[in-house]
Amino acid sequence: MRAAFRRRNREDEEESVFVSMTDMTVSFLFILMIMLAFFASQFNPDETVQLIRYNQALLERDKARRQVADLDKRVAELEQEIERLKAELAEKDPVEEYLKRTAQVRQRILEQLRDQLRVDFPDLMIEISQEQDALRFQGDGLFASGESVLRADKRQIVETIAARLDQILPCYTLGGQANWSGACNESAAIIEAVQIEGHTDATGNDQSNLELSTQRANETFWAMLSKQPALDEHLNFRDQPVLSVAGYGEMRPIADNATMTGRATNRRIDLRIIMYTPTVSTEIDHIARRLGATTPDGPQ
Fold first, then answer.
1. What per-residue confidence (pLDDT) applies to 69?
2. Any idea which fold 94-294 has?
3. Tens digits of per-residue pLDDT, 29-52?
4. Which of 259, 269, 271, 272 is nearest to 138 (CA)?
5. Distance between CA 196 and CA 31 in Å, rounded?
6. Higher confidence at residue 248 or residue 13?
């Protein structure tokens, strides 16, 4: 009896467990059905994407990423090119550097002439132009007002200028008198022209002033050549004599013609030094070779 009772109890327990498991399964399925019903209620065909469209979007995204990468690469290449161009621009232009040196040489020549003449003639009114390219002599110091003939007592000034020029020009010119050296002209600069310029004040008419200024320039030119005939042998890069004349009348005043002092300042002779200007760097070497230098910085 007791064994039959225990067996009965086990069967009841097993049946109870089965019922519980069945209830749980049914409950789970019920919950799952509720969830499926909820999600089904939330479904909206307009908010879904077809697989083919999704894949197309992925392809376009990848293409855009490649394009961005290509643009980044191109930007990097352009930045490198910009830096290279900046470096090239930063490099010194040989022609520009040569012109800077020749400007310094011209200033040195003018200062040398000025200082020597001031020693020779302490009372002589002489200065370097504001543009640093010419010596200026007050016209009334060399000529009487309205006259084109050198004053007898001033002729020595012009002859001394000729002698000083004849000493300086050989290092900066070509021709039979040329005598280049690195000590006097390390930049291999060459003079294009030494121009004797006549100027007047505004008194009188334009034509008479122009003629007077030219006559004064010519008078100075011939007085210099009479003293130093070899001046005509100093040649420029085109094998032309560097000494030349020009008359400007009243056209290039440097002071106010309304005052007596201004008019006296405008009545003047200018000795302008014009340096040869190369257009390409190869000309610089050509100039140096003709002067006798292998480079603008050293002798042969």
1. 84
2. 60s Ribosomal Protein L30; Chain: A; (3.30.1330)
3. 767 677 766 655 655 555 555 677
4. 269
5. 116
6. 248
